[in-house]
Amino acid sequence: MIDLRLLREDPDRVRASQRVRGEDVDLVDSLLAADERRRSSSTRFDELRSEQKSLGKQIPKAQGEEKAGLLKRTGELSAEVKAAEAELREATEEADRLARGLANLIDPAAPVGGEEDFVTLEEIGTPRDFAAEGFEPRDHVELGKILGAIDTERGAKVAGARSYYLTGVGALLELALVNMAIAQATSAGFIPMITPALVRPAAMDGTGFLGQAAENVYFLEEEDRYLVGTSEVPLAAYHMDEILDADKLPLRYAGYSSCFRREAGTYGKDTRGIIRVHQFEKVEMFVFTTPEDAEAEHRRLLQWEKDFLNALELPYRVIDVASGDLGASAVRKFDIEAWVPTQGKYREVTSTSNTTEYQSRRLAIRLRDENGVRPLATLNGTLVAVPRTIVALLENHQQEDGSVVVPEALRPYLGGRSVLEPVK
Questions:
Q1: pLDDT at residue 74, as a whole number
Q2: Mean pLDDT of 219-241
Q3: How far apart are CA 221 and CA 226, in angstroms?
Q4: How far is 16 from 13, CA to CA, in rounded Å?
Q5: Each residue's pLDDT tens digit, 74-109
Q6: By C-alpha distance, which of 294, 296, 316 is closest to 305?
Q7: Which one of 25, 208, 233, 244 has the fewest CB atoms closer than 10 angstroms to its CB?
Q8: If we measure between CA atoms, which residue out of 258, 254, 285 comes closest to residue 352?
Q9: pLDDT band per the 50, 70, 90 thresholds, residue 63
Q10: Tens-digit pLDDT profile for residues 240-265
Q11: 3-state class (DSSP) for residue 420
Q12: What was the pLDDT predicted at 233?
């Protein structure tokens, strides 16, 4: 949620943010009205309670008709207090409901527009010219079969569409990528975490995933639990309802988890291979820091992501995501897209978002410094999402015979292998 004081003082700024996001602008006025109702209801309740307490002190001292009048008024007040309390509760719930539907205030530096209106910040590396090398590149599905690394046919047989097995060297490649990512993160001071895949509704709602992203979330009704789509959710909720000392910030965590996504609304998109799947593994960076340092921390997260992809020797670009393509919690997001040769385009492999105080307010996480207690900032960034990284690795580092050269930085995590050889 955003700071309601800012909403009251500068509603036009909030309206402008909603507008460029493509979100409901009228929600701002509805929330303002609900907030005013809540505040007036609170004032009315406090006044009645004060009168009730005052009468409680007067009655023992009163006599005769005065006492009878006070007792009569006490009976009336009791009913009025109950009604005022009910009105305050209802007004508070309505204001809270509307506030949770309001997206975070967008960073003025973020590009304005829809999915295709991103701004390319930089391009790193040069895509290979396979034609000049004299052969047509194979896609990751074909390479996966040649290497005995990916089995989508049996994945579909066992688990349905958008499912897969990583086999042999494919499984080893996943473990190598995860171990390499955790090694980089811990060397940068991140605390490694293995997080729950099932969370309570408060955790999922608190991170903002029951709004725009709700259609892609798996819900287990009997257990009243959600399967996480990213370890961002359990990492954000790790300090839920806590106050953190400012001198211990930033707190940086690197969470390894399985991720589950329904991929609703993607019918017909990326049905071949492992680019868009229902379950995958990921190492996610998550940071708790001061609001003042959030923007600088966002750039640090982006650099850590770049360092990882540079080590894998992949060509990629960094884009500044446009306002209409941001999640509700992010004020700004940078995506890194790796080049996929057989598609002739860049595809997202990591992203990093600055969510400022939005999640901490919803999860009641605060910091304590010399100025007292206040909300802190949270940020997240993907260090490695395994399937898409495997896609980029296989396709970019393939050789004419179907073998794949292993980037030097990854070799120690693959038992020293320098080349992935076709299975005979």
A1: 73
A2: 96
A3: 8
A4: 5
A5: 777 788 878 888 998 999 999 988 998 899 999 999
A6: 316
A7: 25
A8: 285
A9: low
A10: 999 999 999 999 999 999 999 998 77
A11: strand
A12: 96
6-38 pLDDT tens trace: 899 999 999 999 999 999 999 999 999 999 999
Residue-wise DSSP of 159-177: H-TT--EE-THHHHHHHHH
Distance between CA 376 and CA 243 in Å, rounded?
A: 9
Closest to 255 measured CA to CA, from 186, 202, 200: 186
Phi, psi of 339 (to 5 degrees): -75, 130
Given a contact cutoff of 8 angstroms between Cβ atoms, the answer to whether 360 and 374 are in contact is no
**In terms of C-beta density within 10 A (0-12 exposed, 13-18 middle, 19 or more buried), how is residue 323 classed?**
buried
Give the span between the Cα atoms of 92 and 321, in whole angstroms. Answer: 35
Catalytic residues: 261, 276, 348, 351, 388
pLDDT for 65: 66
Q: Are 393 and 172 in contact (CB under 8 A)?
A: no
Determine which helix (DSSP H) or strand (DSSP E) holds 31, and give its type and residue range: helix 26-58
Q: What would the two tokens of residue 155 be?
A: 């994945």
Q: What is the pLDDT of residue 55?
A: 64
Confidence check: pLDDT of 292 > 90: yes
